[in-house]
Amino acid sequence: MNFICLRHSSGKQYFPFISISIFFSACVFAVFLPSLSAHAQSSSGQTIFIGFAGGLGKKTQSNLSYSARDGAQMAVDDANQRKLQIGGRPAFFKLLVADDQSDVNFARVTAKSFVASGVVGVIGHNTTDTSVAAAPIYAEAGIPQLSPTSTGRQFTQGGYRTVFQLLGHSDITSIHLAKVSLEMLKARRIAVIDNGTALGAALADVFVRQVKQDGGLVVVRDTVNSKTSDFNAVLSRVKNEGADLLFFTGVGPQAIAFSQHCQRLGINATLLLSGGAVNLEFPDSGPYPEGTHLLLHGLPVESRPGYAQFEKIYNKKFDSPLTAYAIFSYDAVGMLIEALRKNNSLDPKAAMETLHNMQYKGMSGTVSFAIDGSQNNPPYTLYRVSQRKWQVTRTFGG
User: Fold this and answer.
1) Which 3 state secondary structure label does DSSP give 334?
2) If both were cysteines, with which of 9, 24, 221, 267 could 20 make a disulfide (CB 3.0 to 4.6 Å apart)?
3) What pLDDT, in 10s, does the model give residues 236-282?
4) Which domains does the chain carry?
5) Which residue in 175, 115, 182, 121 sits closest to 148, CA to CA?
6) Which pTM does this prediction carry?
7) Strand ranges inside the chain, DSSP E
8) pLDDT tens profile 98-116
């Protein structure tokens, strides 16, 4: 049986609050509604719930949802240390954590449960597909949805004022990658392979369009399944066409396997990757060969004021790897709480309007949103593998 588990989270401990099946929103959820009022009142103060939704079903090193969750928890802990008051009363924040299994159906169930519990905002979901699936539910309820990890352009194209995207969307990412290919890497014959996902295809399609618009030549455009490890056919095409640059939209372990397959086949094309392909050994390059290029969301962490202390506290509290997702998730919670504080109100609709007009100086940089909820001038860093390290080549935005 599949389960969603909703938890109160604090520090390293995540206590099961209730486990439920797909019937969660229809029946069992009613059991704990009385104790999950988002504005639990007491004589001394109020407890305010913020939702976090991500694919937390299996804790593996490649599952970056955990670092996003822990970044959100760290922001909640920091806010509580500040002893904020909202509406003239002490405010204590708690993170409600839900595992949506990175599944669109479970994402909708999770969204309905958060709405029913009266959360003041939601951090998530962690994939573009799940964020898009949940967005209409939050929009109808007027609850801000801030995703620290979803990059698909479609997330902010639904016309909902409740959606906010802390990472640069896929169109901006692809345009930067295309410019890098032609202007910096001087590519003459380009191969493009997507990983069969909606986001991967979108990245590849905009990349191809921009390359052609700028006068470049695409000699291979192909797709592989996101679960496959058999790249023989498509890489044979790349080799036969004499490509000098290969852009692959795969993520995680598949991107690493793809890179290793390129090396075994003796493909000399420069490998260009997007952020989801980053290896967990970063800033060590791990299995990626010399000359591989990677465009990551965010500015180099060493350039961020206060990052050293942030890293020290994070590593003391949590056992998940500290990734860019943790930093953007930390900022998402910080922005939401700051919007509530500015309004001196727990009204999610008022917070939503304030978020549209904020300029927030966070750990990831200065964050503000365009009218559709996408981030203005999102930051990126281009890295190149040199001497088994990811070395900064150039930054964009921020």
Assistant:
1) helix
2) 24
3) 999 999 999 999 999 989 999 999 999 999 999 999 999 989 887 88
4) 4-168+306-367 (3.40.50.2300), 170-298+380-396 (3.40.50.2300)
5) 121
6) 0.85
7) 4-10, 13-20, 39-41, 46-54, 85-86, 89-99, 122-123, 145-147, 163-165, 190-194, 218-223, 245-248, 270-274, 293-297, 360-362, 365-367, 380-386, 389-396
8) 999 999 999 999 999 999 9
